[in-house]
User: What shape does this take?
Amino acid sequence: MNIPFFKYQGTGNDFVIIDQFNTQYLSLSDTDKIRHLCDRKFGIGADGLMLLERSDIAKFKMVYFNADGQLGSLCGNGSRCAVACMHRLGRYEKEGTFDASDGIHEAIVQAPNWIDLRMKDLDSIEEGRGFYLLDTGSPHYVTFVEDLSDLDIVQSGRVIRYSNRFREEGVNVNFVEERDSGIEVNTYERGVENETLSCGTGVTASALAHALKHQISQGPTPIKTKGGALSVRFKRQQSHFTEIWLCGPADFVFRGEINL
Assistant: This one.
């Protein structure tokens, strides 16, 4: 079976996108096929895969899978890439909504390769000894460090991700270095089980934790990742965050067909 696909990336976080509006190529049970498509040596190669499907309540439905083939939670950079792809296909104009794993999201196409994504409001953040734990569509552990260059992100991330508390469900781990102009974030992602060049829900979680730490009432917060620059806007009242927007690039890489 030949499967047509698009390849997109958002600040180095890359995805395979499959249009299923008229033909169903993959289903939730196709774990092995999805893992193969995301494999960087034997498949197309990606941090995750998205299916674009019809929706009765929004412009489209996005079904997201991690690189291990398992159904994933919300992916911020992936969502922005999905909207950019739908815009390219002529099915999404400047503004609209889409259906994701955690409900309906609004997105604005500022340019064909720049998407603003509205995230869910956040009501609570757990503050622990040296960390913040919060859910921005996916669960994130945020910890602040003095110097990211001195840290082995993969090794340090795995220690937390596979700790007793998080071993079963998993957690994404974000290491944050504070700068005069904002923050720099390196992320270890569950499902990929490695460091990624960027993580949309991760930088959002890091920006909100940074705001809570320093009692910042509103964004935007400029964010540097290994894959590029992002920005998070928000409004804060104590530990309650509203009007959270993840803003950044979503670039078309190539399109093709693969035979399974």
Remarks:
- The first strand starts at residue 2 and ends at 10.
- The chain has four helices and 17 strands.
- The chain has two domains: 2-118+250-259, 126-248.
- The chain has a mean pLDDT of 97.
